[in-house]
């Protein structure tokens, strides 16, 4: 029964990631570490957000571009107690593209944040059902932005690689499909070689930033024959994250990207085995709307989403798929540094689909 959790892992690909707190996307899922035996998987999700707002009678148009979310993993047993996993994911990202010619203050503005991470994890199982896991994560980050309404401003932060770590523990009781796992992810520091234009070309600088520390609490348990309850809580310290290029910050007086509060994301779902080969899941995810004024490069606040998934096993191959619909929380943004002129982003949503293939060997 514990294998059902792999279906719920589709949440990491298609659960409205464009609207998650800060710039979170993958959720840093390490569920592959708990797969039985030797196992490998690849996955792809396609997310299509629709986010727009209004200010002073002008509509921004849809400013959130569609994007792909790709993941892969390999898990292998070394012996009965020791195993390891290698995971590739894209933990953070942003794709902003305001249409031109709308009359909105940030019309024509674009921004992109791209990360790639490779994580290696070791796990040791004790005879009591308790296990410990830990590892290292190598992560790349690059970012760029263009805001025509602010002196034709552009910025480009070149790709940089940083290293972080993770540690955690789990408790399992296989006879009732019980598993509780907690994992801490450290911050990762990056130093981006940055070029800026603000009216004129600016001296090249280095922009320091840190992707935030986070904690994942994941759980599952059997609640009836062939039925599994699963869920989790993810905390991310977004208040410690900012991108503050020197020329922009010195002129405007605030970072290019910053968040006021940390976020908690909650997930609750049910998995059901329909036959020896087919199982399904349904899950709800929720992130509180905090009511803060946010950046025009990320004009969302909270979310509520539903994900439906199916999983089919065929010999050693496991095929999973899912679809998600998310209502994105409304938010206000400042559209003028000269005064409290606010835009209002409401009635926004995203749709995602995902597909994953796993193989046991």
Automatic annotation (TrEMBL):
Membrane-related topology note: Multi-pass membrane protein
Locations listed in the record: Cell outer membrane
Database matches in Pfam families: Toluene_X
Record flagged with keyword Signal: yes
Origin: domain of life: Bacteria
UniProt key word Disulfide bond: no
Residues of the signal peptide: 1-20
Keywords, sorted A to Z: Cell outer membrane, Membrane, Signal, Transmembrane, Transmembrane beta strand
PANTHER family according to UniProt: OUTER MEMBRANE PROTEIN NMB0088-RELATED (PTHR35093)
Family: Belongs to the OmpP1/FadL family.
Name used for this protein in its record: Long-chain fatty acid transport protein
Organism of provenance: Parasedimentitalea denitrificans
């Amino acid at each position: 029964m514990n294998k059902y959790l792999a279906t719920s892992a589709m949440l990491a690909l298609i659960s409205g990631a464009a609207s998650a707190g800060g710039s979170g996307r993958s959720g840093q899922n390490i569920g592959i570490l708990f797969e039985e035996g030797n196992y490998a998987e690849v996955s792809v999700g396609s997310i299509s957000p629709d986010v727009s707002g209004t200010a002073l009678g002008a509509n921004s148009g849809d400013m959130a571009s569609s994007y792909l979310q790709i993941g892969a993993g390999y898990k292998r047993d070394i012996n009965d107690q020791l195993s390891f996993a290698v995971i590739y994911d894209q933990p953070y990202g942003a794709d902003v593209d305001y249409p031109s010619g709308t009359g909105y203050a940030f019309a024509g503005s674009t921004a992109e944040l791209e990360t790639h991470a490779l994580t290696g994890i070791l796990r040791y199982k004790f005879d009591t059902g308790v296990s410990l896991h830990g590892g290292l994560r190598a992560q790349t980050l690059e970012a760029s932005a263009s805001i025509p309404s602010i002196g034709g401003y552009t910025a480009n932060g070149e790709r940089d690689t940083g290293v972080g770590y993770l540690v955690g523990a789990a408790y399992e009781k296989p006879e009732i499909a019980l598993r509780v796992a907690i994992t801490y992810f450290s911050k990762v520091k990056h130093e981006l070689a940055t070029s800026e234009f603000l009216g004129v070309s600016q001296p090249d600088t280095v922009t320091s930033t840190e992707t935030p520390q986070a904690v994942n609490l994941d759980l599952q348990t059997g609640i009836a024959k062939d039925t599994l309850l699963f869920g989790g809580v993810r905390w991310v310290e977004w208040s410690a994250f900012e991108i503050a290029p020197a020329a922009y910050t010195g002129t405007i007086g605030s970072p290019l990207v910053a968040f006021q509060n940390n976020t908690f994301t909650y997930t609750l779902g049910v998995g059901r085995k329909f036959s020896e080969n087919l199982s399904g899941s349904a899950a709800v995810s929720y992130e509180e709307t905090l009511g803060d004024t946010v950046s025009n490069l990320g004009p969302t606040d909270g979310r509520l989403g539903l994900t439906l998934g199916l999983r089919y096993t065929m010999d050693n191959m496991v095929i999973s798929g899912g679809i998600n619909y998310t209502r994105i929380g409304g938010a206000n943004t400042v559209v003028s540094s000269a005064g409290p002129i606010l835009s209002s982003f409401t009635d926004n949503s995203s749709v995602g689909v995902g597909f994953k293939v796993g193989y046991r060997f």
